Amino acid sequence: MGSKKLIVIICLTAIAAIFFFVKRPKFVDVETVRIEKGEVRETVSNTRVGTVKACRRAFLAPAAGGQVAELHVREGDSVKQDQLLMEVWNKDLKAQAKLQEFQIMANQATAEQVCLLAAVAEREARRSSLQKKYDIVSEEVLDTKETDARAKRASCNASRKTIAVSEANLDAAQAAVERTFVFAPFDGRVAEINVELGEYVTPSPPGIATLPAIDLLDVSCLYVSAPIDEVDAPKIRTGMSACVSLDAFTEKRCSGTVSRIAPYVQEKEKQARTVEVEVKLTDPNEIKDLLPGYSADIEVLLASKQEALKVPAEAVLENNRVLLMQADGLLVERKFKPGLANWNTIEVLEGLNVGDKVVLSVGREGVVAGAYAREQK
What we know:
- The protein has four domains: 25-40 and 306-375, conserved putative lor/sdh protein from methanococcus maripaludis s2 fold (Beta Barrel); 45-57 and 221-305, Elongation Factor Tu (Ef-tu), domain 3, CATH 2.40.30.170; 65-88 and 181-201, CATH 2.40.50.100; 91-177.
- Helix 2 packs antiparallel against helix 3.
- The strands form five sheets. The chain has a six-stranded antiparallel barrel.
- It contains four helices and 22 strands.
- The chain is an alpha+beta fold.
- The radius of gyration is 44 Å and the shape is rod-shaped.
- Helix content is 29%, strand content 38%.
């Protein structure tokens, strides 16, 4: 009898163990993070990669065609405003300018002579006028003297006008010479030279782009031009702070400000309408290592809060839901009211509290509300 009771007890214990083993919750491994307070920044980023550009860039070529006679700079040289960079052969034009200088000198000498003669004729006419009062000379002689004086004064005036014409011709000749020079329009650095000594260069025809003789960059001022989605563009204003990220460097550069927002929407892709936004870097230390042409991304700061309750963006499910892990490992779903947001963090206005343990690995198999979980070691 006792043995039968023992067998029954053993069977019941086994059944209970099997039931517990089958029914016990299966735990899934998850990553979690506790909700805390900190700074939350609402930002807008570009949809496609942007480009670092120089604030001023000039594609320079001589205004007049000709053979390259002098190259006064090399690629990579730093130049000052109005510095002579290149010169096209212009000896004939310089000779014309020199000829005009001598022509002015000759005209001045002629004018001096003619005007002296005019002054003498005017004095003789005045003497004849006095003599006429005493009937020393006839009316005919006086008329002849006065007419001669007026004619010589007119010749004097004409000679002076000739000097003015010669000076204008000199200005034109000097302008023709200057058209063969290429000067730096601003302080900058020579990025590229596309001509060699002895080559023949011509100005670009209207509407036809050709390689510039000299490519000049102002690398002391740089900005990033990047496309922003048309949905986000209305939120941006000039003067807003912005950070710049570059593939070539690890650290962000956050001295940027929005300097320009394009007044139109680009249609480069049928379903990706964007607005070009420019961010200018203002810290010289953040500019010195950059080169025009680097790929870059911008992040425009729309608003920020210093002590805001925040949750990682990767933990948030559709319709602003998160999975909370309770003390016994049970996962429960909780909906919250969002505030400021960016790619990494979302502000929590209502629905969650400091210290709540939020599941990060929401995309993992088995990680659903009602499941049991344990923190991944």
